[in-house]
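RESIDUES AND SHAPES:
===
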Amino acid sequence: MKFFLPLLLAIVSFSTFSAPKSELWPYWNKSNESSAAVIDHQAWQQLLDQYLVSKSDYTLFKYSSVSERDKQVLTNYLERLSKTDPLSLNKAQQYAYWVNLYNAITVKLILDDYPVKSITKLGGLFSFGPWGDDVITINGKTLTLNDIEHRILRPIWQDPRTHYAVNCASLGCPNLQHKAFTADNTETLLEQAAKSFINSDKGVLLNDNGAQLSSIYDWFSEDFGDKSQLIKHLSQYRPDLGTLSGKISYDYDWSLNEAK
């Protein structure tokens, strides 16, 4: 029995991990395009400046160095976003709002349970990570990280580059950007993030038989399209992949994106 229970938990954890479908939560699909309101993300930017570092293909977060004061800065930032009605904003402000909110919540979840080897260790007993947990309340509605990514960002904007914007605190994930998203820099950051990831080994690793791709291209194939559409997307940022052929495999590293 002592052996069976851990084995059962492992099987349940990995079997229950599957990429959610893009399914619109209609309530959030509204905006005020005449609004000139600008959300201040400077607090998040200050944390990125202080604790995010680049190393080879990765941007790593210095979780162990975050001061109690800066933990409170993060908490205050999230509280302020939770009191902001995103529906009163224009779509450009909304996109930056949701991406920064997702990434900031993810960092806070790691800090709350630190030290931890992987975000997959968070969440309930039978869960694989915290993505289905209630994490914030906005406009009186409780949201999970899955809600933000798969019921708001993906279905409303229908831009596969969103997968390069949201960060799951793992080495295999597209990097957390050094800049907070804003309405003005979103396009630049999305293009930069896509190019960086696709030109990294964790995004596309060529081998003698073909290529090993990040599992995000498998999990979210509905966003990237069939093989020919995927290759077209990849070659847009890495031209040599336009002739990609052979066997395609997938891999993902769930280790924490930690700078030690």
